[in-house]
Amino acid sequence: MAEANINDNEVDIVIAAFHSDLTAFLNEWKPIFSRFHLIIIKDPDLKEELRIPEGFNFHAYTKSDIDKAVGSSNSHLFSGYSSRYFGYLISRKKYIVSVDDDCLPAKDNMGCLVDVVSQHIANLKTPATPFFFNTLYDPYRKGADFVRGYPFSLRSGVSCALSCGLWLNVADWDAPTQALKPGQRNSRYVDAVLTVPAKAMMPVSGINIAFDRELLGPALVPALRLGGEGKFRWETVEDIWCGMCAKVICDHLGLGVKSGLPYVWRSERGNAIQSLKKEGEGMKLMEKVVPFFQSVRLPQSAATVEDCVVEMANIVKEQLGQVEPMYGRAADAMMAWVKLWKSVGSG
Amino acid sequence: MAEANINDNEVDIVIAAFHSDLTAFLNEWKPIFSRFHLIIIKDPDLKEELRIPEGFNFHAYTKSDIDKAVGSSNSHLFSGYSSRYFGYLISRKKYIVSVDDDCLPAKDNMGCLVDVVSQHIANLKTPATPFFFNTLYDPYRKGADFVRGYPFSLRSGVSCALSCGLWLNVADWDAPTQALKPGQRNSRYVDAVLTVPAKAMMPVSGINIAFDRELLGPALVPALRLGGEGKFRWETVEDIWCGMCAKVICDHLGLGVKSGLPYVWRSERGNAIQSLKKEGEGMKLMEKVVPFFQSVRLPQSAATVEDCVVEMANIVKEQLGQVEPMYGRAADAMMAWVKLWKSVGSG
């Protein structure tokens, strides 16, 4: 487990609440979360009052808080799984750690509790190496280094802006995979963090991520929403779209993205077979979306993250908007988000 | 540990012998190697007779065998660490597994002996996924799969041509790193195999590799030789150059390269501080070589591996040959190698 020297005031933990009773969830996380400030966003569709146990420093936001802050014309951006993006918007901290409310702390191969915050912040505070792949994984980790042949001029690395954690037990398969292999669980704890190379695209999952909000904040954008987006991860692709935007922007600006540790333990939720129809829509979209993000190039003039999101929105509108109106709406959402970041956020 | 269904006749194990007495080395490997044919190449500088224990099906080649097969004008290609390439050349098997003679079998996290052949062949027999990164590593491994958002059209993958294994104990640091951190050992067994994404370059180490000779053979080329190349890995860069050639060719032809399992256990050998001067030369070269391989693009007309090596040699000669004569000699070696592959090899 990496040990990062963390200032409590540098971190906001953002939780989107799909269940009103967060008692069991938060009590499990208490050893890890209690020293940090929590931003809890209540799913706008959730009727009951939130139940939050004692011992946490938190601020909870409801639909009316969202409406008040962003205006009712923008509040649709923050429904369902995208409600957490409201937390990203209002945070003023350097780092955001965000974990789904169906996840609990995992244990490593030695049986020790994984400190998800410490590992994410260590990933973000140490450099990333997107321009040459280190075969022994993260060279900045204790006991690791650059392997023979790694150019010295690339060994100082670049700033890491996004850290993508993984999942034990219920892995982030899509609904068809989970439906075909209902008993399949991920039990392999891979003790590694790696920088995803520049120009390589990946499916970023929003289940367990952290980012440097000051470096990359506006790129974590709520944009692509499926018509039938539901309350299970496999019914959504908002995080996949957002992750590819963020990766393209990191590549363009010379920032790094890491993947691997820390793990969380994901619990059972939902029925994959019932979700098949909804997910099918998202799966089909990926066939167009992935080649698009693999080939899109931002103009040199885009020098800030906000610039990059605006440019990306323009290109999405132009190249994908005509294919399918959903992409056009994603582009509109990206434009609206950048405006909000500048007015409501810290942009 | 992956279980590959291996036909003994598909595999040649190639060993370059820098020590005359291979008894201890081969006896340790007996449980894994004894069912396969071994090609043993005696380092041309080694004077004593090879000592090979009973129980192995092998063919040993000496300097005079090399001279006879390739002609004395070409035999300089196969000196020192490059002697193993003679084994690649004369093999007629589909798969080559090559392990340095200072390596012994490793144990995994459960204390089980790692079957290096089985894991390499499993890596080569299952598809690679260079065009989109799977965050849960090799999706074809037992218990693994593609994560949500992975396009279905990319899930059949491409053929894997090169499998790069790793090292426990003495890792493949360069001489300066080892000299600075003399006590540093790699003790982290990372239980993962991943496809190195297309266009990402990496330092391929020749210590523990396997490849599909029918798919990629001529790309494993002995080319860049340091003036002071010695008998320790950290005094060489031939494998780093060869690996970048192979990676560029795989990217061009749509083949995959995997990295990770299997591990071997590397023993102590050499004095890093004494090697610093020799290695310094190789390290300096990497600063030019890496950007070159990152940007080189082969013409569409290069449709076979042989074509690709010839094209690459031409580009090396043109773009790097004027900078430093060593690169020009590397280009000449690549041309000579392709000719040999066609005449002596199975090309």
Mean pLDDT of chain A: 94
**Sheet with most strands of chain A:** 9 strands, mixed
The percent of residues in helical segments of chain A reads 25-40%
Q: In percent terms, what proportion of residues of chain A is strand?
A: 15-25%
Distance between the termini of chain A: 34 Å
**In CATH, what is the class of chain A?**
Alpha Beta
**Structural class of chain A, please?**
alpha/beta
Spatial extent as radius of gyration of chain A: 19 Å
Overall CATH architecture of chain A: Alpha-Beta Complex
Summed up, the helix count of chain A is: 10
Quick recap:
Two copies of one chain form a homodimer. Chain A is an alpha/beta fold and 347 residues long.
Describe this structure in words.
- Two copies of one chain form a homodimer.
- Chain A is an alpha/beta fold and 347 residues long.
- Chain A has one domain: Spore Coat Polysaccharide Biosynthesis Protein SpsA, Chain A.
- Helices cover 35% and strands 16% of the residues of chain A.
- Chain A contains ten helices and nine strands.
- Chain A has helices spanning 23-33, 63-70, 84-90, 116-125, 175-180, 213-216, 238-253, 272-295, 305-319, 325-343, and strands at residues 11-17, 37-42, 57-61, 95-99, 103-105, 160-169, 193-195, 208-212, 256-266.
- In chain A, strands 1, 2, 3, 4, 5, 6, 7, 8 and 9 form a nine-stranded mixed beta sheet that branches.
- The longest helix of chain A has 24 residues, at 272-295.
- The radius of gyration of chain A is 19 Å and the shape is globular.
- Chain A starts with 10 loop residues before the first strand and ends with a helix.
- The model of chain A has no long low-confidence stretch (mean pLDDT 94).
- The interface between A and B is large, with 60 and 60 residues.
